[in-house]
């Protein structure tokens, strides 16, 4: 009960705003701002009527502190007749990258003329045969470097040079392994995840063509298999990963003990099931730097709280040794969310029923 009281105090000033949209939201991300008080949001939208996709940049304003209803103002839009539906979206200070279900990878560069004039300049894309076969499951960007993984079992590193985008194949399973998540840890290291709730750690300084470490999930008899949908790397301890996947599973992976996962929720992985806040697919996980741990004496206290969203419409904060704290419960799936890295109190979510949810914490 003390844990619940501690968590409640940290969330007691939570404000939630819902903004209906006219199209389906495939993904949403914060974009690093031009100035300290700017807030920019990138949306990947899909119109089922015309089967067209667009990438839109919006500014977010709270004009009245007495009645803080947010205003979302469009700044720039990118569209193309050949643009396939977005499978994943990532942003950095100088790059917006989005992959598609057709296997292409596109890049945009934000051009900051002023806070009210931010355009999206198109950069060279990767659409060549052999890059990926079929949908690209996940991408991640680190400044202007990108890593991509796909259902085809390919892991590619993408960079820019001589006015074009090029890639280098890190691994190809020839379809025997399917990847669904990837996350940079450093300019030389990244983690991947996929079928079987497996995780792999890749170090480009090691022997090429194989991961430096692997974790294979041990599933209970009730659950035959599972998939890792999302990975995040601890911001100050790159040896610590968090993964979310099937059956409400959220678990930590510490490279120092690579076969001893720290299970926060789920019914599948680990020797004993924990009480899950959700039993459906966990679509995204991110470490939550806004919160202080309420269990600092725990053996796993290096694992800071983590936020997750699920197919059941749950947005919640989890941490080892504490009860889950539910921030949002919707009647539809929460497909993606993002925590503002410039202000950890701000969170934005995409709801399956064509809406955005904006959460402000204090």
TrEMBL record:
<dbReference type="GO" id="GO:0031080">
    <property type="term" value="C:nuclear pore outer ring"/>
</dbReference>
<dbReference type="InterPro" id="IPR015943">
    <property type="entry name" value="WD40/YVTN_repeat-like_dom_sf"/>
</dbReference>
<dbReference type="InterPro" id="IPR036322">
    <property type="entry name" value="WD40_repeat_dom_sf"/>
</dbReference>
<keyword id="KW-0539">Nucleus</keyword>
<protein>
    <submittedName>
        <fullName>Nuclear pore complex protein NUP43</fullName>
    </submittedName>
</protein>
<keyword id="KW-0677">Repeat</keyword>
<keyword id="KW-0853">WD repeat</keyword>
């Amino acid at each position: 009960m003390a844990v619940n009281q501690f968590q409640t105090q940290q969330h007691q000033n939570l404000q939630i705003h819902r903004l209906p949209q006219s199209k389906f939201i495939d993904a949403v991300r914060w974009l690093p701002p031009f100035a300290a008080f700017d807030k920019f949001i990138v949306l990947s939208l899909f119109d089922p009527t015309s089967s067209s996709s667009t990438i839109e940049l919006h500014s977010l304003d709270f004009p009245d502190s007495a009645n803080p209803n947010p205003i979302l103002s469009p700044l720039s839009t990118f569209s193309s007749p050949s643009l396939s539906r977005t499978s994943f979206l990532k942003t950095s200070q100088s790059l917006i990258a989005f992959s598609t279900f057709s296997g292409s990878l596109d890049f945009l560069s934000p051009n900051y003329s002023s806070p009210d004039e931010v355009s999206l300049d198109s950069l060279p894309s990767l659409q060549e045969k052999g890059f990926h076969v079929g949908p690209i499951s996940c991408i991640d960007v680190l400044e202007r470097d990108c890593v991509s993984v796909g259902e085809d079992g390919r892991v590619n590193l993408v960079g820019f040079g001589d006015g074009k985008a090029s890639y280098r194949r890190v691994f190809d399973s020839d379809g025997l392994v399917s990847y669904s998540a990837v996350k940079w840890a450093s300019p030389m290291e990244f983690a991947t995840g996929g079928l079987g709730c497996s995780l792999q750690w890749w170090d480009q300084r090691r022997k090429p063509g194989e991961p430096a470490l692997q974790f294979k999930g041990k599933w209970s008899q009730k659950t035959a298999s599972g998939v890792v949908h999302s990975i995040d790397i601890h911001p100050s301890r790159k040896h610590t990963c968090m993964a979310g996947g099937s059956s409400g599973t959220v678990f930590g992976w510490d490279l120092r003990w690579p076969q001893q996962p720290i299970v926060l929720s789920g019914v599948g992985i680990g020797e004993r099931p924990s009480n899950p806040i959700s039993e459906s697919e966990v679509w995204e996980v991110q470490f939550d730097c806004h919160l202080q741990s309420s269990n600092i004496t725990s053996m796993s206290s290096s694992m800071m709280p983590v936020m997750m969203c699920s197919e059941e419409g749950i947005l919640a904060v989890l941490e080892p040794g504490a009860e889950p704290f539910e921030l949002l419960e919707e009647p539809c799936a929460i497909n993606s969310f993002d925590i503002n890295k410039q202000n950890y109190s701000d969170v934005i979510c995409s709801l399956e029923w064509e809406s955005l949810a904006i959460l402000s914490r204090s």
